[in-house]
Structures are given as C-alpha cells and as structure tokens.
Amino acid sequence: MEKLDIIIRNARVVDGTGAPWFKADVGIFGDRIAAVGKIIEATALEQIDANGSYVSPGFIDSHTHDDVALLDDPQHVAKLLQGVTTVVVGNCSFSNYPSAGKEETFQHLASLLGEMKRNQMFVDFSSYRDRLNAAGIALNLVSLVGHGPLRLAVMGFARREATTGEIDQMCRLLGRQLHQGAHGLSFGLAYPPSAYAGRRELVRLAEVVKEYDRLLAAHIRSYGGELLESIQEFLDILKASGAKGLLSHLQVAGKPYWGMMPRALDLIDEARNEDVDVSVDMYPYPAGSSTILQLLPPSAQEGGIAALLSRLAFGAERERIRQLTESGAETGWESKIALIGWDQVRIGSASHPELKRFEGKTFWEAANLSGLSPFEFTLHAIRLDEGRTNIIMFQLSEEDLRVVHQYRLQMVGSDSIPRQGGKPHPRMFGSFPRVIGRLAMKQRLIPLEEAARRMTSLPAQRFQLLDPGIIRPGLIADLALFSDEFLDRATFEDPQLNPTGLEGLWVNGVRTVKLGEILAELPGSVITRQ
Ligand SMILES: [Zn+2]
After folding, report:
1. Which residues surround ligand 1, an ion (CB under 5 A)?
2. CA 247 / ligand 1 centre spacing (Å)
3. What are the backbone dihedrals phi and psi of residue 409, each rounded to the nearest 5 degrees, phi first?
4. CATH of 59-286+396-425, one of 1.20.1530.20, 3.20.20.140, 3.40.50.1000, 1.10.10.10
C-alpha cells in the first residue's frame, strides 16, 4: 500500500487550469503533489476530510510591495490567511536592490514603504535572496528589479534623459540581477526617477529583459486622461523590444474618464493580435493607494525629498507647485486633486507621531483640524514624514472594475503596501477572498474556476514559474483549502480584519494554516529563475 504524508479526502478540486471543479482526494508526499483522484488504498500520516470544501493551488499574488515586510515578519500572516503561497515583489519601479548604500535609493523605497531600515537595502538580488532564505519565510517570493534603483545607482535623482553611457551602465546592472535569477524588471512611469526616463532608455532596458526571456511590468505614465496613450506607450516599448509585458493594476482613475475600460482592453487585444505578449493585473477595490508624493507633479520631485523640501521654502516655487498640485498638468501627468478632490484622498498610514491622529481622515478633514489649507497640510505632512505618508485615493468606478475582473488576461494582484498600524488599504488583507468569495461565489460575476485560474496557473505562466499554479501529480504542493464561507472582511474603515473560511494552506508541502490559525512554519523560499 502506498504511503503518503497527507491525504485531503472528499474535496472539490479547482485545479487552476479553469476546468470545472471535480470531486477527488489529493495526496501529498514530501513537497510534491503525489496523487489526485480516488486514493482509497493509500495511507498517510495525516488524513483530512475536506467534506466538500474546495482545494485549489495556492494563490500567487502577482503584484505586491511586500519587499521589506518579509524581512520584518517572515510569517506574513495577512497573506497566508488569504490562501497566498507566492508573492511577487519589486513592482512599480521600487525594489530594495541593487543599492550600493545610496541614501537616495533608500529614500526612494522608503517613500512608498514607510517604516524600513537601511540594512534592508541590498547590493544585488543574490544578497537579498540569501538574507530571506537564511532567515526563512512562510511563503515563496518572486522578485522583479525596480527601474528606480537602477537609475539612481547610475545618475542619481537627475530629471533628464540618460546618456548612451548611462543607459549602458543601467543595462549592465539589470543584466547582472537577471543573471542572478530575478524574474524581470518593473517601470514606474508615474514615479520619479523612473518617470524621468525617455523612450530610448526604456526600450534598451526592455531589450535586456527580452535577452534574458523575463517579464517587463509597468506602472504606466497615466491611468487618467492619458490612459490610452500611456497604454500605447508601453505596448510600443514591448513591440520595439520583443519583451513580454505585464501592465500593472489596470484602472481608469478619475470620474471624467470612467467607462474607458473596454477601450483599454481593446488596445491590449489588438496588440496581442499583432504578436505582442502582454497581460494585466488588478486588485478588486475602487480606491488606489500610494505615497503622498504622488499628489505632487514629477517636476517638483527633482533631486529627491531633500531637494523638494528646500524648494518648497521659496514663495514663488511653492506657489508654482501649489497651482500644479491643485489644478495643473504636465506631460504625462495631471493633477490628482483636480481630478478627484481633497475630500477623496485619505491618509492611510503615517510614520511621524504627530500625523498619527489623521490616519483614516481625508486631506480635507485633516486640513480643517490643523487649521491649514489642504495644500499646506500636505507640505506639513511631507516635511514631518519625509514623504513617507501612505494615502488612499477613491478614484475608480465599480463598472470599470467589473469589466477588468471579467477580462481573461487579468491576474489578481493585491498591490499591498504593508505599513505598521494606521488605516492601510484593505487590499492587503482581503483581495483574494474578495475575488473568490464575493465576486465569484456570491455575485457570480466570474466562475469560481476562472477566478482561481487568474491567481494560479495564469500568473505561474506569466512569470514562468514552472512548478506552482496547477494541481497535478509531480508538481509542487502549494495548496489552499477553503470553504463556501471563504470571504474578505477588511473594509476601508476597518482594514486589518482577516478573512473567514480558509481551512488549510500548504506551502511546499508543509501546512502553514489550519482552520484559520497560523502554524509556526517557514517552508517558503525565494524562487530563482535559472
Ligand atoms: Zn503601481
């Protein structure tokens, strides 16, 4: 009689391919799925009666900013309880390597991630990977290289096009990270200094991604009035370089533009018809989240935070930035405040104690409470927090969200920005059960199997992870066991609530969650691309 480690009996198997669920037992031996079907004969050290609950491949969170969170908290409970077994970090041009101890590079990442330490920056992918693997992590990690640190390493926070020599240096630095096993590159074309890059630099970097057969992700220049042009810019870069692409968190920001999603998807489908290999990711919420610096025009941020603050001291420059911030436009950038208003932007998490009392309040409310105008309050917060205040922007329509969640090439990416305390965006705590439990099982917006495919085999294929993403004998035993009650509870008012209904989670064959409780195991590792 065959002897297995674990048998999950009487499950409804959602195998990750999009095929209808089927009734079967799933056997695990070591770190592998050993058998799928009626495993009547086999015995096992542990037998679990799923009693009709679903077993699917563990979810791959295709877009996160969990880069530093896993160094602080290797368990990463918020993700485990959603059924996530792999996270992709290094998005939107932000990664914590390669960094040769440059202060600007640290400031760049900290503006998004807030609380982090200087020793959480790494000289290259290998040293980041080695630190995580040595300390142990509860789930698997895939890393992209951020464009920001590449540019900062070569030319600092300069607001100009790179020279040929500088581009060569960036390409070499990128090549080294990809050679070491990073899975791709991310642009952040709305985030300085990535936003300062011209087309030649972007295409050359994309060519390096193509050379190594990796993935190029992009936070595009605009998700508002210039959404279609910005999508086209990215598609043109993919076409010119031949690189495979991932358009990050596809959305239509700002009421005047709502309803544009079908046209955006048409552009992507047309490009695919012309042989451009591209897909998208998105999270299931009508608000976005970012750094407070996103409220200011890119031109104001030249030179980094210190330069920004000293520039703001001068009356004329301060007035110029105020006008731009509240009502202006620059190429590829339009005022977020003009688009959605101070009352639609909230303070999520702040670092400075004096700002803590404003967490969860709109900029309008915070300004009133402090007796300042909203713009003056913004500058005050940037100064106190060195640009590290996390904000939440209510800017999307439910209809556009529905359309992108029904798109076959959309992957679920939480875009989580882990912060300590405050009122962070609930997507960190609820994205996966929200799509499975709410959008698929309750609202029937998409079939359950299709929802699962977008968080398992589709991302596995896009990131070229050869192992996870499908339930099949011989593949890695990353598995989620969830019931009909699998549902998000996190809200914008109470964002840190964990979901219900996760009965089990296995990472590389080791159980990490049992009936909603975390087991103290660290079976994950950094996935290195060969
Ligand atoms: Zn982004």
Report:
1. 92, 219
2. 10
3. -100, 5
4. 3.20.20.140
